[in-house]
Design goal:
Layout (H helix, E strand, L loop, with lengths): L6 H9 L25 E6 L7 H11 L2 E6 L3 H10 L8 E6 L3 H6 L3 E2 L22 E13 H6 L20 E4 L5 H14 L4 H10 L3 E3 L2 H8 L4 H5 L6 E5 L2 H7 L10 E18 L5 H11 L2 H6 L7 E2 L8 H6 L11 H19 L2
Length: 363
Amino acid sequence: MNTTTRYAATALAAVLGVTALAGCGGSDDGSGSSGDGGSRTVTLVSHDSFNASDKVLKEFTEETGYTVKVLKSGDAGAALNQEILTKGSPRGDVFFGVDNTLLSRALDNGLFTAYEAKGLDRVAQGTQRDGKHRVTPVDTGDICVNYDKKYFTDKKLAPPRTFEDLLKPAYRDLLVVENAASSSPGLGFLLGTIATQGEGGYQDYWKKLKANGVKVVDGWEQAYNEEFSGSAGGRKAKADRPLVVSYASSPPVEVLYADPQPEEAPTGVATGTCFRQTEYAGLLTGAKNEKGGKALLDFLLGTSFQEDMPLTMFVNPVVTDAALPELFTKFGEKVGTPPTVTPEKISANREQWIQSWQSLVLK
């Protein structure tokens, strides 16, 4: 969610002074082979924003006898790059956090061994992008424009709802976005414009958006916590941009970490500006604990883990029967099925699209 998803929302928690829980391994170094006589540790390699409650990790150990060791490796792109460099001799057993913007790259490099995880029959349609089961969908997250409710109420101005709305003179100099070349939400927003405007129209769209005063910064943390007037960090920084590219899960997070908690989320979501990220996990080719890795993939689709994710990583469950916490149902905004771009098309065009975007917007 790239997301993937999750990195930005977890960063918000960190900015507001919340310490994230991390999965910890036991004393086993994970070097044994799979099987009953092998290692009882299964190593999960992930981006920095992977998070699971201690209770859920303990439940996995009680059910399987395996202890999870989490090896965090930077953002999603950096983590994937490290696995590509070590493919065939991976640093762990399972990789979590490759999303649909990077999926084809991972598959083309042969990082994963096929495994059909238990519970795939419960997974939402449209998230299973690999018919060979080399990866398992785990969560989804929506990159969307967020707006500062107070600003628009004070101005007696309706907030934008769609990509086209953002071009209107009423929203001139109000939007801040992240650099598509250096930021997951920035890239997701660019892909959203390509999905809605088409390959023949997105460049003209960005020319108009630039003419309407869009501001570009390097990453999500700067955009959301320094430039966006609706966030807790932005209010402290006296930010003056009431529109920002963030996540559909950001309003519930603003409520969760507010003291006291408000009756209404201070920010809203322009649901017609979203791009959906899906995050996947896969059994790494050459995994030393293949049996434990398969057990972990099964567990990631289980109810306990799926219902734990919204309040630990601020992403949505991928299984259809998982319940959302009240925080999400009360303060979140439901996004239907936003337009998307296939992983194959992203893989074939990503660098060209980014270069085109840079030449249009940054020069």
